[in-house]
Amino acid sequence: MSLLSFENLKVSFHQNGALSPAVKGVTFDVCKGETVALVGESGSGKSVTALSSVSLLPDSAVIEGSIKYNGQELCGASEKELRKLRGNAISFIFQEPMTSLNPLHTIEKQLSEILLVHQGQRGTKARARVIELLMQVGIHDPENRLKDYPHQLSGGQRQRVMIAMALANGPDLLIADEPTTALDVTIQAQILTLLRDLQASMGMSMLFITHDLGIVRKLADRVCVMKDGVIVEAGMTKDIFDAPSHPYTKMLLDAET
Ligand code: ADP
Ligand code: MG
């Protein structure tokens, strides 16, 4: 059953008096409990597609088509409805955790704020939940990391904290936009394993955006290959890797090996 679905999504941006298209009619869905990878080179429209799903695009964007979450139309949904979805059902992880974490707040404060705003949790209960979340994402000795500021953590630890923040709402859908691109290769592998384990244990659905086919192979049930604002090929991961049909997919696969 489809959890998030895009139907003929088109996104253009007002720029210098003209309208320039970024996404040109994209149709795909993410079903409950599955991981779908959106893969393609830089500038192909992956982030714009993902951001449009919860109206995180700037006002210069013109969006057409249909985006449904659990059957509910999101295009044209009220800010109140969207905020509720972003608070409870859908979470995002971005590429560079430093830009999403507040450098002036401790790890505990950033996580507690989410628990307070979205779940009304505070005090010792919230603190216990913060520690539990940090443990869940593999932060060692979490009690002693609560008062750390983002700059005191390594890149991999910061990304773990970002994942903890994304999990704090107990989302049904996690959208991860190149969450490991800024990390060292060994740390990348650890974060991917973490995401895969979390996805499996929590039964979350995941939309995983990447330009790296190696990641797709490890993580995704299905793949959509995007190029110049359209999906040129989609299918089960194994089928795409075994027998790609579009020349662009073949080229990506050749470049990988
Ligand atoms: P990807 O995530 O696949 O690297 P994006 O979705 O970020 O690519 O971008 C797709 C296209 O849309 C690019 O040409 C990019 O320049 C353009 N674009 C993205 N965001 C904006 C914006 N806020 N204003 C204008 N153009 C944008
Ligand atoms: Mg992007």
TrEMBL record:
Domain ABC transporter, chain residue ranges per copy: 4-253
Cell compartment(s), UniProt: Cell inner membrane
Primary location recorded for the protein, binned into one broad class: membrane
UniProt superkingdom: Bacteria
Residue ranges that the Swiss-Prot or TrEMBL entry lists as coiled coil: none
GO biological process, one term: transmembrane transport
Keyword Nucleotidyltransferase listed: no
GO molecular function, one term: ATP binding
UniProt keyword annotations, A-Z: ATP-binding, Hydrolase, Nucleotide-binding, Transport
GO cellular component: plasma membrane
Family per record: Belongs to the ABC transporter superfamily.
Name of the featured protein: Glutathione import ATP-binding protein GsiA
Source taxonomy: Bacteria, Pseudomonadati, Pseudomonadota, Alphaproteobacteria, Rhodobacterales
Range of the intact protein held here: 1 to 257 of 535
